Amino acid sequence: MAEKFVYEFGARTDGDAKMKELLGGKGANLAEMARIGLPVPPGFTITTAVCAAFTAKGGLPEEVDAQKNAALANVEKQVGRRFGDAKDPLLFSVRSGARESMPGMMDTILNLGLNDETVLGLAAATNNPRFAYDSYRRFIQMYGDVVLEVHAEDEHSHDPFEEILSAVKRSSGVQFDNQLSEANLRDIIERYKELIQKVTGRSFPQDVHQQLLGAIGAVFKSWNNQRAILYRRKYGIPGEWGTAVNVQSMVFGNMGPDSATGVAFTRDPASGENVFYGEYLIDAQGEDVVAGIRTPNPIRQMEKDMPAVYGELVAMRKKLESHFHDMQDFEFTVQQNKLYMLQTRNGKRTGFAAMRIALEMERDGLIDQKTAIGRIPADSITTLLAPIFDGKEQAKAKVIGKGLPAGPGAASGKVCFSAAKAEELHRCGEKALLCRAETSPEDIRGMLASEGILTSRGGVSSHAALVARQMGKVCVVGAATLEIDYGSRSMRAGAVTVKEGDEISIDGTRGEVYLGSLATVPSEINQVLEGTLPAEKSAIYGMFARLMEWCDGCRKLKVYLNADSPQQAKAGLRYGGEGVGLIRTEHMFFEGGRIDFMREMILAETAAEREKALAKLLPMQREDFIGIFTAMEGLPVNIRFLDPPLHEFVPHDEDTQRALGKKFNIPFERIRARVEALKEFNPMLGHRGCRLGISYPEVSRMQARAVFEAVVHCKKQNIAVHPEIMIPLIGFVKELRHQADIVQEAARAVREESGVQFDYLLGTMLELPRACLRAGEIAEIAQFCSFGSNDLTQTALGMSRDDMGSFLDRYNELEIFTQNPFATIDMEGVGELMKIAVERARKTRPGIVLGICGEHGGEPLSVKFAHAIGLTYVSCSPNRVPVAKLAAAQAALT
Amino acid sequence: MAEKFVYEFGARTDGDAKMKELLGGKGANLAEMARIGLPVPPGFTITTAVCAAFTAKGGLPEEVDAQKNAALANVEKQVGRRFGDAKDPLLFSVRSGARESMPGMMDTILNLGLNDETVLGLAAATNNPRFAYDSYRRFIQMYGDVVLEVHAEDEHSHDPFEEILSAVKRSSGVQFDNQLSEANLRDIIERYKELIQKVTGRSFPQDVHQQLLGAIGAVFKSWNNQRAILYRRKYGIPGEWGTAVNVQSMVFGNMGPDSATGVAFTRDPASGENVFYGEYLIDAQGEDVVAGIRTPNPIRQMEKDMPAVYGELVAMRKKLESHFHDMQDFEFTVQQNKLYMLQTRNGKRTGFAAMRIALEMERDGLIDQKTAIGRIPADSITTLLAPIFDGKEQAKAKVIGKGLPAGPGAASGKVCFSAAKAEELHRCGEKALLCRAETSPEDIRGMLASEGILTSRGGVSSHAALVARQMGKVCVVGAATLEIDYGSRSMRAGAVTVKEGDEISIDGTRGEVYLGSLATVPSEINQVLEGTLPAEKSAIYGMFARLMEWCDGCRKLKVYLNADSPQQAKAGLRYGGEGVGLIRTEHMFFEGGRIDFMREMILAETAAEREKALAKLLPMQREDFIGIFTAMEGLPVNIRFLDPPLHEFVPHDEDTQRALGKKFNIPFERIRARVEALKEFNPMLGHRGCRLGISYPEVSRMQARAVFEAVVHCKKQNIAVHPEIMIPLIGFVKELRHQADIVQEAARAVREESGVQFDYLLGTMLELPRACLRAGEIAEIAQFCSFGSNDLTQTALGMSRDDMGSFLDRYNELEIFTQNPFATIDMEGVGELMKIAVERARKTRPGIVLGICGEHGGEPLSVKFAHAIGLTYVSCSPNRVPVAKLAAAQAALT
Question: Three-state SS across B416-462?
């Protein structure tokens, strides 16, 4: 049998909700809704498999075309009208639909099938010429933009179709589209067609089948438009997936006051509250709502406007949640009082909402615990931990606007009226706050670069709200009292005028806008953890604590923290960190006056001189370790020995060099010469890591002694200690053996001097490809290994994180990276080395403790990878501990 | 049964020649000689397995001690004397013996078993008190030095035993040791004992069993002395092997004028000529010959001195070669006209000798071709290719000395009278020529650092000759007319005085010393290859050609050459290179005025500007390629696209920057800013390799076009061309695909423009760990892959070759590297990645051509590794082609 490329939905439905890979999310859910009897206008889906073929061939393969025509004929039968029929034409919408929703990223065409002839038929059949011409006008505009590529010339010009529309509105003295007369619309249609003729050199296509093919092609092509690529990059969606195309018979929300169109959520997607939520417009088509041009009405108002339909919608809300077991974001159209469902999907939600919905649905028995845990994007819970405005300051602050709370949290920054300006500020390290009348897909980069987003128009399903939810940005939409004037780069808020660059603050939980930059306090969760807020006073803490308890109950990976001070250790401990997976001892050398002793050590010319300087550093290191051991009482604490090149410690300017010379009575010239000698061509591949401890064994000896003396001190105070000593940058097992001997000897000496017995573990970082390959013999000595995924990425890829700036953009653009390998572990390359290492190390020492302590340790996909290859723990910065726990739990449950 | 740690030889023999790993070379061959009936004094070997155990325990394990005592008792029975017997004592020699010979590196003790009592017994039993006291004197001296560690305090002081000896000789007015009277000897013995008492605080041990244990321990310990470690490092001998200890009953060459000791070679080890060769001393012990203190007599003189023994020796020579099938280096002792064999081993030989002996033995049916090929150290044949003195100049040059030719070749340099001075000059990049009365193991570093070695004393088996042979150094020994005066740092040669730092030349083939630095001409082989010398006039060329023919007949690996110019390509072709495996196109950009166009390209701010500059470079590149294609007609030519960071091309000093600005009419500030912007933290891991071609596709486009236009040009001239385009530094398959598309498009365009059809191969370097791991998918596009072993070593080990200087010595000292990984492929790490890559690439594309083009491509061990993992070719610098061919043949035959 030939492969099936076209799936129908309606009276006959081929697909279902599980077929998202093939049909895309929209197509699969249209099929599912049809299957369970919801009122879905019939249509068909051309599968994602065709996307690549279409791109390669530049057109529809023949067999797909045949299947499409067959499906089209079936739709004609069901609705009893024919495509292109001059009397009573069947119209279609053509929409994209990828495996994962990419809202607003790709193209859509409505009212397809209208031409100079069928528009007359539609007018006659509906007995509504105004409606027919409005639909034709919309169709030409969309088709002209999307398929024929008649656009504004650049981001500063106006859309040429909108210009014609505005001109006619102006000359007729009307404010809104739905106030245009039939004559106005016919006028607009003629002008649109002239525009197209002028720009493209061809007339607007009258053949409806040609229209359909053009639209299908445009949707497939839109998979590779710039904004879609940017979006995929941000969310890690592979370009290979492709989009499906949904061709659906049209229903009309623009057939007059008994028609409407809307978007609704089964719960509040910003706060997660279990209320019916959404918005609609009377006498409009779907795109009007999302575009945010007219501010739509809140859904509850429909109870008054269209009570019967509202009743149906409330029933629909219940039915959807009980069938899909998740919060749904659905689109509907009311055509002359009849409700149609055009789409449903799992609603995007903020981190706050994700947690609340998951916990409440579990409580209400709608989903089980495992599902609930899986529902919360691990990364998103960092938003719960972000600082909030100081209540007292907020009470005093000047509120200059109020809108809909679309992305919870607190954000302050300099006002930017364009995405470009926001990007510019961000590059300079400043905080930007993007303020727009409404946002569009072109603004995505600027939105990414901003602390928060504020719009004066549009509702909670507007583009700004949608994207902010997904990005986890603080957002207030539809703050209608703000009058933004792009021309003067300023915004009026009553008596106040805010200029570009002025500071404002927005509260995305309350929907308020304030003048100036408001002070912040720790998040509620942190206030509870720090003991300044009683737990019972914070609902959000209650939810967070419950979630963490669930995670602790099911995850296999332990979660450690990277800490360089007792403060950091305590912070991570509050979040439930189970040990310290990395102390970068060198960080301790930078504090206060210590750096000078470190420099004295580096400048020493003999081992004896070095030992003299080291003797001064020893008590300081010991105190540090005592502090962290005490904070982490009873938990493992992993101390990494000196790692960075010595060059990083010495001063490079003459003044400091001279001052240092004076302090230690060393000639300036000697210092300068030594600093010069320490310079390296490729410091990342130079004299660092264990190579230092091997060249200067006295450094390792001092560090080992500081650790063990701290252990003895703690043991004498009855503080349980589990020290682990980690040797960095091992490539050869003999390096490890050399350092292990030094450590062992120091332990013996300290035991003997103190009379106190203690245990410790000795291990190493696996951060060089060679170390991964030799993990079998390394594990003969190492009692644990921790992957240093930053260095391992740099060496495996031969790519320095510090130097990749010159080609990173290009690499992203070409999709050479699917993810930035320094953010998410490069599973195919670096991950392969890790797998080899795990296998070989475990073969030698089956129970060996294996972890990861690079920055990947707190990144959800990398945590899941760590679980998948059987690591024992991940170690991350303290504030990533909850993220890592959640990701670890999710990994364990899938 | 308990493990056997002690193997006997003599009337009962446990071992044989095959057991070198366990018994060491000396022990195994002693056993073998005993087995085939040669006159070997009985004894036993303590195995190499005990070496590590001894080091760990600091003494002999109990079971070994018991086995040793049993063997000792057997020896006593055989010789009919007892160890420590006061009447007629059995004496022993105790010698080291590792798996591979390490001449002079470890310690030896003779005459063990003498004490104040047994010396009387020996005197009585031999009726030769002088001999007995001489032996005792020697024993105390050796034992004192080796076991009790009574040495000179530093390299400038005299040996304290030698000082006593000299003092007595002076006061008694005798010149040589063998002229000392019994009374003198007893005096010396007393003074020796006092010295030992004074330095060690203990008296010289009288217990013979304690003596034996001490000696065994000292030999084991000497495995880890500094000079042994240095030697092992140079020759890649693992520290784990350990040495065996040979305890053998003494025979005496110092029993008077009917006794003698000597060293002989079955052929000339310097020239390889098939003549009996060697030297001996009457009334001496073996150490006297090797130490070079008395210049020994050439072996042929024995025909007169001891005709009967000489006859036996000649017979022995024949027997040894016909049994061992190789040139033997053997030691013998004549005790009162009776010949004893003390050792035999395959003789070390120069590169010249190795080739000649192998070829002649094969010709004479002593060995087969396969064995002959295996006998020539691949690296050693580079000595055959080294320049020789210009015959005309040499004829006119002032000969200031004549000695024995001990290391063929021509060397000029500044005279150095100490090893330290030679090292110092070498470090400063100057050519040193080490001149010593004699050399000792302490001089090894200095010998390594010298162009050649000249001694005024000692014969062809002296330390200098021995080491020079093995190192492949030019060497003249025993140039007796030279009077070296260390005090005044000068050397008298008749009327001429040569000061330290003056230039001289030595001809190690003729044995002559010349004043001044003589001009050189290409080696005979090169003269023949270049057509300036008829082949039939050069015997050495004949041998070389025959050897290469053999190699070509059996090797599996192809040998390509790295070339950046037609000249280099031709040079490699003369040596039989079978293609160009690497053109570093960037080298072409440095030539002449081109660098400025390259700079113009780099300084360009837009793709259009870049293309303008590239258009100027294109014809130059094309000409280069035409030149190499023409030189390599019909053979594959592999062109690597631009690889190094752009920073390497731009000027870093202000003057050049300003001049450049003037030339291209670019403001100086822009140039400076651009140069600054190109700086990278870790250029090795930065914007280079294919990353350049991806950022600036126009560069790859230009290079592809230059290649293809050159191809078209050649095809029009009927020159067969096989171009291969190689993309550097691939990590991700998408990088390769991107560059492949550009190349493909250029090929299409050039084919279309020219109307000429041509083929080419497209491939990539495998020089990043990630690339090795992803070789499977890379091979979907790459038609060949070449390992860039330099970069692969840098990334796999995380070690920059440019920066490792700061810890390399330390790493060598600690034996963390067994070989320098940038000289010989790190088989355990880098090699493992290569194996993975080979396996995965071949799985995708079974017949894929795989090669190596890093500097390892001309290093014998790496070539053998390349063969072992199934590569198709190695590519190396032109003058390494013969080495690679020989190594490849050897790999194929083992």
Answer: ECCHHHHHHHHHCCCCEEEEECCCCHHHHHHHHCCCEEEECCCCCCC
